[in-house]
Amino acid sequence: MSLTNLAGFDDETKNRVVAQGGIHVLSYAMFSDHEMVRQAATEAMCNMVPHPEFMQYLTKEENIRVWVAFSMDYEINFGCARAAIGGLAMAVPDPEVANALVKSQKIGEMVCTLLECGQLQLMHRSLALIVGLIEHSCFWCGTIL
Questions:
Q1: How far apart are CA 129 and CA 67, in angstroms?
Q2: Looking at the 3D structure of the chain, how many domains does it have?
Q3: pLDDT truncated to tens, each residue of the chain (145 aa)?
Q4: CATH number at residue 132
Q5: Are 53 and 97 in contact (CB under 8 A)?
């Protein structure tokens, strides 16, 4: 949990996390068997927004796919899903991340699932994500929904 706070402290600290291979380590920790470790790792990664290395990490297809899957997994690990959709919503102002997300095969399913889930925190984050995509004129709604 303290790493989550450190990753969000300032740019110098984010640079140190990146320099020490923190993105890879946190990405690995997102798959821990322990729910709280998964959630803390995902939250720490969210705090890396808008570091350029982290934003580049999110543009890779396999990474964005993981974040989309984590976002939809709210029934099993609500905290991790909340962090994942929140992280995506914070990252979509970056046009490359927005484009990577739009290319994801599961974006429509993710948005529909989260908007219908009844969990206000997830619904709010989903709407913030949609607003971010609209600001980039990402026309994905008509083809996916």
A1: 13
A2: 1
A3: 556 666 667 788 888 889 999 999 999 999 999 999 999 999 999 999 999 999 999 999 999 999 999 999 999 999 999 999 999 999 999 999 999 999 999 999 999 999 999 999 999 999 999 999 998 776 555 444 4
A4: 1.25.10.10
A5: no
